[in-house]
Structure formats: C-alpha cells, structure tokens
Amino acid sequence: MARLFSVCVVSTLLHQSAVAHVESRQQPLQFNHEHNAQTELHLSGRFLHLTDIHLDVHYQEGSSVSSDCYSKKNLKKSDKVAGFYGAPGSNCDSPVALVQGTFQFVKQVLKNPDHGIDFVVWTGDNSRHDKKNLRIKEAEVAEANRIVTSYIIDAFSDPKRPGHATVPVLASIGNNDIYPHNRLRYSRKADTPVLNFFADLWAPFIPKSQDATFRRIGSYMVELTPNKLWGVSLNTLYLASFNGAVPDCRRRKWPLAFYQTNSADKVQFDNDDIETEASHKLSAGDDVLNWLEVDVLIPARNRNISVYISGHVPPNVVNYGTDCYSEFSRLTFKYRDIIRGQFYGHMNIDHFFFTTPDQVLRRYSSSTSLQSTDLTRVNTNTELVLFSSSKQNDADESQVKGVVTIMSPSWVMLYFEYLILHYKVVQESKIIPQPIFVSPSVVPVFNPGIRVYIYDVVSDGLGDPNLKKRKNIPATRFGTLLDYEQYYADLEYWNRVTDVERAASVDDVISTAETPHDKSFKHQTPRSKYLYELEYNSKSLYDLSGHGIDTKGWLDLAKRLGGSTVSQPKRRKKSKKSTKKSTGDDQDETTKDRWNQQQNSKQKETRNLRRLFFSNMIVHLKGLISPFGL
Residue ranges under compositional bias (Basic residues) (predicted)? Predict the structure, then answer.
C-alpha cells in the first residue's frame, strides 16, 4: 500500500523536521502584485481555505488523551491513546505528522495543474491551546506561527522565481495566535507589538501600501484579480466579545470624516451622516469597520469590483460585541451587491449562516428554551465533556445500541440547536446578504478538514446574457461562488494503517490487516496515499438551487433544515340541518389523511437532512449521535 510518508520516521524526527523547516526556508516570499495581471490569464477558478491548524510540537503518540496527549505515565489499558496523526474527538491539538500530511496534500494534489489554486484564505489559529498540563509561553506562540507560515511559503513558492509567490495569501490572526490568548490590545497612535510581529512575518503577503494599516488594525486588502476581485483579511479580534482588551463598538453615525477617501466616494454621504474624530473616542472595532467601509467597500462599489471578506472569528451574536455585530451586519446588508463571499474559522465545525438583525434573533430566542445566557457558552470551545448516547433524544434504537461514549466539545449540541433556530429566523427576512461560510478545522477536534472553493472567473461583472433570460437566476459577476469541495481526513483509518504498518513491512500490510484482530479492517476499501479525500461537493450534496451556490440556494437549504411545514387544509363548514355523516365529511377526512401523510413525509425529510448536515458539521466523527429530534 502506498503511503504518505514512511511511518518508520519517529515522532521526534518529525518535530525536528518542523523546526528545521523554519531554519532552512528560502528568502522571504514576495507576491509580485505588479505581475498579477499575467496570472489572470491562467486562473483556475479555485481557491483554498485553511483554518485552525493548532500545531503542537509537544504531542506524543501513544500518550493518554486525558493528559492532552502529553504523557504516557500511569497509562491504563482502558485509556484512549493518541494516534500517529492525532486524536479526533479529544482536547489534543495537531501533531507534526498531521500538519505535514496536510500540506503535502495541498502541495502535491490541490496545487497540481489538474486542480490549481489561485489564492489562499488562511484564517488563523496556528498555535496550540494553552493547557493546564502544559502551559504555553509567548515564545512558543510566536514559533508556531513561524513554522506554519513556513509551510505556506513552501507550498506556494515559485521555483522559477525564487523569493516570489505564485498566489496571494489572505492571512488572519486567530485568538490563539497571540499571548495571552484572546487579548489583543489596540492603539491608534502607538505601535502594537503583536501587530508589528505579524506585519514582519507576513510581509510576503501584505502589500506595501497596506503595511501601515495592518500595523494599526491588523487588517489588509489584496487585489486578487486586477479590477475585478479584492480580498480582505479582517482582524476579527477587535470585533470579538471575548477580547477583554478592547471595548465594544460605539453606536454612532458612519463613516468618519478623517479617513482619506476619494472625492468620488465622499459624495455618497451627506454632511449630517459624517462625524469628526474629535466628537468621540474611537474603539478598535470602529477603526476596523470604518476602514472596511471607506477604504474597501465604497471604492469597490464605485469600480464595480467584487469583494471577499475573510477572518478568524465568524460574525454572529454569539461571537461579536453587540454594537460591533450590529454595524458589521449593516455593512453586509448595505454592500451585499459587491460582497460575493465571507470565509471564517474558529468554530472547528462545518456550517453556514447569515448575518441577521440581532433583535430578530433575540425576539425568537426569547420564545424558546434557548436563552441568551446559553449562547455565550458556545464560545468556551475548549472544554470537553462526555456525551452518553443514552441521553440523546429521539434517536433510533438501532443507532443507539452499541455506540461508544466519546469525548466531544460540550457546545456542539447547543450550537446545533442555535443553528436550527437561526435557519427558522432567516425565513422571516426579506433581504439577506451572502451566507457566512465556516470551514472545519485541521486540528482534530473532530476529523481534520480543508476546503476548496470554485468561483466565477468568466463573467465580466455585467452578467451572462444567456442567464439573464432565465428569471430565476440572477445576473452573474466575476467572483460569484459556484461550488465548494470539502476534503477530510479519516484519522481513525489512518492511525490504524500506521499501527498495521508498524506490525509488518509495507509489502505485507494487506495480509497483516487480515489477521483475526483486524478482520474489520480488511473489508475497508484501500484509500489514496494521501491523508485527505473528497468528502462532498456542496451544490450536489445539498441540492442547492440557482446559479452556483448563491444566496437563494442557501436560503432554500436553511428553510429545509429549519423544518418547513405543509399548510393545513381548511375544513368544510357543516350544515346545521344535517345530522348524518355527509360526503363533505368524507372529503374532509380524506384531505386530512393526505395532509398528515405529507406532513409526516416532510418531517422525515427534515430529520434526514439534519442528520446529514450534522454528520458533515462534525466531519464524520464516529460515536456522536445527531440531535435530529430538534
């Protein structure tokens, strides 16, 4: 059986190779923006999204999962142990082997001519979590970011032009990429050491014209395709509610007059809509969102340019400060004609949602068992609890029987309930912007996942004339998302392959797998030599309507997940003179029976769809039963 790389390489050597990867990397990678027009002729219409790698060089294969995969002391036979590629369903971070396998797949499969990658969206959290069993230090956080940056550089460097990149990279800061975690200070006038560190580290990715902006607010913009598509790396830590180092945004008029805008952009605002800097104290979130609107969205609209927005923390009422979320939502609604996609990480799970007015969600949540105080628990995504299958509601008996209790994030059930409520809410909104896409993480909280988006590189921004003739399909423009491919790594399988290969030579893998203690293994179809495989295509799996994967298709999916019902037929009025069962009564009963059948069928479809969605949400982690009774 072909292999990703020989498992004879000891884990300590993997650790050493990761460090050496940094020390021996080539000169700082530079993306030549002046030559971007040349690459436009060779666009593949595909881009990569990587998030939440959480490299942990202290990870020990064979250690106890309960020790965060750090210690083999007092190990019992009943203990769950750390596998070679990781420990899915645990609190452990990513071993070096998993990170190397991930980038080997990117470099040798996704980047090759049969696929192709036009640019990379890389949404942060490269360092491991801080653990009680092993406290993290500032130097380790910085080193983890250097190592992962070196992997990006190695995967997308141009051998014909040393020191240059073949693609642009939108890199974002994660809440675990700073020390201490979750706390990023802000100063408009003085330098912020953390932002200076990343500005220097990511100088290959940040245009020189954006350097000063990044050092102030940790955000930057890249021209992905000249005069057609811009990409934004948004510092969401200045919007996040858990960042105690900065206050929430301020409710006020927008935008601020002190931004250097073109005269053509300024005319869109009346004098009454503009405040001066002296009229209030600017918060970090204000600065970020002002920049996003005035320096990116307004010029993009004036030039008919599509915009992608990326960041670490997804924008919703759970993650953002109340006022920051309100202002961000306002921007997504106002500029929904040019914002063609939004891409985030942080949550580790595969899902989507829409920016909706927070007061709408609060109105709906107040009438349900899901309270606002419960929603705040969703952010504590590093605490783990045991979920027992016997406690799952509405599960089929055949599915419950024999399921082993596993470790799983304590918030996943609660967040799934929150999403279902959200999907019900968006049905009430008449105007909805593009959905927010949250990709699963590389770190094996569940199984690792990476994503490739397919986007429109043909339309000139004025729309396809052939599509305009069809009223149910909107006019397309450059950057419209057409589909995405979700890839995942089945770590249970690959960890087992590693164990088998260590028990025999590589040539004897199949025969060894057929030994009595591995009978179930021999019935599995041999996988590719790479860790990752295609999990699904979004458009075909979810039967998304419309052109590409536009808002209409995702709203329809939200409606199906939310549980749309069949309208109940009206009963005929009985005649006062009639005392016997009439023909009308028979018709009413027949109609009622037909309605009940339709309703039952609809509910079954909803349960099956939720079951499928939940399975993808947790990246096929085995042992956790979907709460499809919601």
Answer: 569-580
Do 290 and 314 lie in a common domain?
yes
Residue 18 lies in a domain: yes
SS3 607: helix
Before 247, cis peptide (omega within 30)?
A: no
Domain for residue 304, yes or no?
yes
Q: Are residues 519 and 459 in the same domain?
A: no
Distances (CA, A) of 529 to 5, 107, 442: 9, 14, 18
Pair 233, 156 in one domain: yes
Residue type, 551: T
Same domain as 520, residue 433: no
Domain range spanning residue 120? Answer: 11-56+93-357+429-490+532-563
Range among 3-12, 345-354, 371-380 with highest mean pLDDT value:
345-354
- Considering the domain architecture, whether residues 434 and 520 belong to the same structural domain is answered as no
The residue-averaged pLDDT of 234-256 equals 86
Give the dihedral sign, CA 420/550/221/101. positive
**Other Cβ atoms closer than 10 A to 394:** 11
Q: What is the pLDDT of residues 491-525, one digit of tens each?
A: 999 999 988 877 765 455 444 444 334 555 555 56
Q: What is the pTM of this model?
A: 0.81
* Contact between residue 127 and residue 145 where contact means Cβ atoms under 8 Å apart: yes
Strand partners, 30: 164
- Residue 509 near residue 493 (C-beta atoms within 8 A): no
What does each C-alpha distance from 194 to 19, 308, 315 come to in angstroms? 22, 25, 23
Look at residue 513 and tell me if it is in a domain.
yes
DSSP, collapsed to helix, strand or coil, labels residue 484 as: strand
Residue 287 belongs to some domain of the structure = yes
Specify whether the backbone of 206 is left (phi greater than 0), alpha (psi in -120 to 50) or beta: beta
Percent of the chain with pLDDT over 70: 66
Is residue 463 located within the same domain as residue 513? Answer: no
28-40 pLDDT, tens digit each: 334 455 444 334 4
- Number of folded domains in the chain? 2
CATH number at residue 202: 3.60.21
82-91, 548-557, 591-600: range with lowest mean pLDDT: 591-600
If asked whether residues 344 and 318 sit together in one domain, one would say: yes
Burial 111-141 (b: 16+ CB within 10 A, else e): beeeebbbbbbbbbbbbbbbbeebebeeebb
